[in-house]
Amino acid sequence: MPKFDDKGLLSAVVTDAETGAVLMVAFMDQEALSATQQTGEAHFHSRSRGKLWKKGESSGNVLKVEEMLVDCDQDAIVLRCRPAGPTCHTGATSCFYRRLEDGILQPVKS
């Protein structure tokens, strides 16, 4: 099983199961991990709200989990998912839609 930190969290990296692209990074607690395992849809722990949230609960852009990979130290997890729409709350496919170049954020070219 994954090892949660002293706040009961672990880092979760979400990738597209088809392309391998990194879609987002969030945190999971035991409740989020259990909900994800039970439903097959990604759930996370919202640090700002201090509660469980299902990705896409308001937008409909849920993440169907195909595989969960735990790293060698057991303190991070990768969720290989099939997104039902844009992953980022901005409407971008990925939360990583900018790159840092010469100290300036630039849009990632599709």
Q: Could you explain how this protein is built, in words?
A:
- Helices cover 9% and strands 42% of the residues.
- By secondary structure, it is mainly beta.
- The strands form 3 sheets. A 4-stranded mixed beta sheet has the order 2-1-6-5. The chain has a two-stranded antiparallel sheet with strand order 3-4. It has a two-stranded antiparallel sheet with strand order 7-8.
- Strand 5 (63-70) and strand 6 (76-83) form a beta hairpin.
- The longest helix is centred in the first third of the chain and has 10 residues, at 30-39.
- The radius of gyration is 14 Å and the shape is globular.
Q: How are the elements arranged and paired?
A:
Blueprint: E1 10-16, E2 22-28, H1 30-39, E3 43-46, E4 51-54, E5 63-70, E6 76-83, E7 98-101, E8 104-107
Give the % helix. Answer: under 10%
Main sheet characteristics: 4 strands, mixed
How many strands appear in the DSSP assignment? 8
The helix/strand series, from N terminus to C terminus, equals EEHEEEEEE
What percent of residues are in strands? 35-45%
Q: Please list the strands of the largest sheet in the order they lie side by side.
A: 2-1-6-5
N- to C-terminal distance: 37 Å
> What is the radius of gyration computed over CA atoms, rounded to a whole number of angstroms?
14 Å
Assign the structural class, choosing from mainly alpha, mainly beta, alpha/beta, alpha+beta, or little secondary structure.
Answer: mainly beta
Average pLDDT confidence is 95
- Poorly predicted ranges (pLDDT <50, ≥5 residues)? none
Total helical segments:
1
Choose one word for the global shape.
globular
